[in-house]
Design brief:
Arc Repressor Mutant, subunit A; 124 residues; mainly alpha; two-stranded antiparallel ribbon
Amino acid sequence: MSQQELADDLRRFILSSIPSVPYLEAVLLLRSQPADSWDAATLARRLYVPERTGRELVAQLEKSGIAAAAPAGVRYAPATETAAIIDRMAAAYAANLVTVTGLIHSRIDRRAHQFADAFRFRKE
């Protein structure tokens, strides 16, 4: 499966809503256990990232509407239409991790190039 083989709406969702691979994996982890509450420390341990990153992920998930506040952190609680596309994204990720992560990284690489270009001197 190549990036072109992902449905257009799924590609748009990944490019516009998934800022990093750890964020994607956090979404999928919450999705796999929707009744559980996740605090930053537990999420960080499960994803093998620093606790600071876990706090950032929890905040991003809540801000994006994918997670809602729960007594011990956050829990998976996207809107129905968002949950449906997340289900499709999970299937695409399981079927071809390289395609989905490549798409996420292409977005990150593109932003880095745009930032670097802002400092490039040009002959006018």
